[in-house]
Specification:
Elements lengths: L2 H22 L4 H18 L15 E4 L5 H11 L4 H4 L30 H14 L6 E6 L7 H11 L5 E7 L2 E2 L2 E2 H4 L5 H7 L3 E6 L3 H9 L9 E6 L22 H19 L1
Parallel strand pairs: 1-2, 2-3, 3-7, 6-7
Antiparallel strand pairs: 4-5
């Protein structure tokens, strides 16, 4: 898919996300919005052999949403890809729905239950090792939050990935610099992420996660045969695409009122119209 098409799709997914979270009266919309561009690129330009008719195809690329509280972004992406029916997504927040506030394997297209922060990379390492052992060429992608980087289990997994030369593993950090308690550097300083992960033996690349062309170009340059696991530091904006949410910590778990939903949708629709021209 061309970059312009990905931009348009991301905006349509962004509008759907706002509407779904508003209807559900719950969700982690700030982090949803900051990682939505990357998720759109993964599912529509990067990951291979994804088939809604065969969600467990043996040679499919795997995706683990380690920052599982941002599952709403995954739900709208799965809907756009054909894994999730619209009438099912509309049940988010309702009693009896298969859709939870974190990913579960009841939902077609979701690989693992996730969201206990710090666990996703360990799961991804296991998947990547399995591919090597089975001599399969599928890749595994793990999306983590930056606040999540305070979890020690991440670094055990990172060392294991280096030990086993998992060049079929790509970890992405959604570096929006805000977590539920405020700025990441005030809660638990993380910088410099590239220096830290390079020292752990990973190939590290920074990209602008707010810019689709940067995302596409960065994924295209990954060498899956260099014997090193890959880390992409995706520099993003919390609440990206809704002006009154951008860079505001309270939208980590904020709930839209009716007027805010109307304003957010109108803003996104304006960009959609521009991209459709």
């Amino acid at each position: 898919m061309k970059t312009q098409e990905l931009k348009l799709l991301a905006e349509r997914n962004r509008k759907r996300l706002v509407e779904v979270v508003y209807k559900a009266k719950a969700g982690h919309i700030g982090g949803d919005l900051s990682c939505l561009n990357v998720m759109t690129a993964l599912y529509f330009n990067v990951m291979r052999n994804l088939d809604p008719q065969q969600p467990k195809a043996p040679n499919r690329d795997r995706f683990v949403l380690s920052k599982g509280h941002c599952v709403e972004a995954l739900y709208v992406t799965l809907e756009a890809k054909g894994f999730l029916k619209s009438e099912v997504l509309d049940t988010l927040g309702q009693f009896g729905s298969i859709l939870s506030g974190h990913p579960t394997i009841e939902v077609p297209g979701i690989e693992v239950n996730s969201g206990a922060l710090g666990h996703g990379l360990s799961i991804g390492v296991g998947m990547a090792i399995a591919a090597k052992m089975d001599q399969k060429d599928y890749h595994t992608y793990v999306l983590m939050g930056d606040g999540e980087q305070g979890e020690g289990s991440i670094y055990e997994a990172a060392m294991a990935a280096n030990c086993y030369h998992l060049d079929n593993l790509v970890a992405i950090i959604d570096r929006n610099r805000l977590q539920i308690s405020g700025n990441t550097e005030d809660v638990m300083p993380l910088d410099s992420i590239p220096e830290r992960w390079t020292a752990l033996g990973w190939e590290v690349v920074e990209m602008n996660g707010d810019d689709m062309q940067s995302i596409v170009d960065t994924f295209a340059r990954i060498d899956y045969h260099n014997n090193r696991p890959h880390l992409l530091v995706s520099n993003t904006t919390k609440g990206k695409g809704v002006s009154f949410m951008e860079g505001v910590a309270k939208w980590h778990h904020g709930v839209l009122n009716e007027q805010q939903c109307i304003d957010a949708v109108a803003e996104i629709e304006q960009r959609i119209k521009q991209l459709e021209k």
